[in-house]
Amino acid sequence: MADTTTSSNAPPSAAEPVVDAAERARRQRGKNLTLFFSLLGFVALIYVVAIVRMGLHAQGQ
Predict the structure, then answer these.
(1) What is the pLDDT of residues 4-15, one digit of tens each?
(2) pLDDT at 5
(3) Which segments of the chain are extended strands (E)?
(4) How many of the other CB atoms lie within 10 Å of CB of 59?
(5) The whole model's pTM is what?
(6) CB neighbours (10 Å) of residue 19?
(7) CB 18 within 8 Å of CB 12
(8) In this structure, what DSSP letter does residue 10 have?
(9) For residue 35, what are the CA distances in angstroms to 21, 28, 29, 32, 39?
(10) What dihedral angle (degrees, nearest 10) is formed by the CA atoms of 34, 37, 41, 42?
(11) pLDDT tens per residue, range 40-59
(12) What gap in Å lies between CA 49 and CA 43, rounded to an integer?
């Protein structure tokens, strides 16, 4: 028996506010920038750790 309580063509409920395209694009850009800077920080951390380890290795420790 098919579930008829939900429909893909149903209008948005009160819990899902309608957001215009400009607002959605602004939020997506914010998420993209957050991800970019998080990844950039991670890469910088790995780079610094690698440089420090190579420096310690070169000193014979």
Answers:
(1) 665 567 665 657
(2) 62
(3) none
(4) 7
(5) 0.59
(6) 12
(7) yes
(8) P
(9) 21, 11, 10, 5, 6
(10) 60
(11) 999 999 999 999 999 887 77
(12) 10
Tokens 């610094």, residue located:
48
DSSP assignments along 15-26, one per residue: TS----HHHHHH
Side chain identity at 18, as an amino acid letter? V
Q: Which residue's structure tokens are 């959605």?
A: 24
- How far separated are the first and last CA of the chain, in Å rounded? 70
| Residue listed under structure tokens 């098919």 | 2
Amino acid found at 5: T
The count of C-alpha atoms lying within 13 angstroms of the C-alpha of 17, restricted to the half-sphere facing its C-beta, is 5
Q: Enter the tokens of residue 17.
A: 């506010």
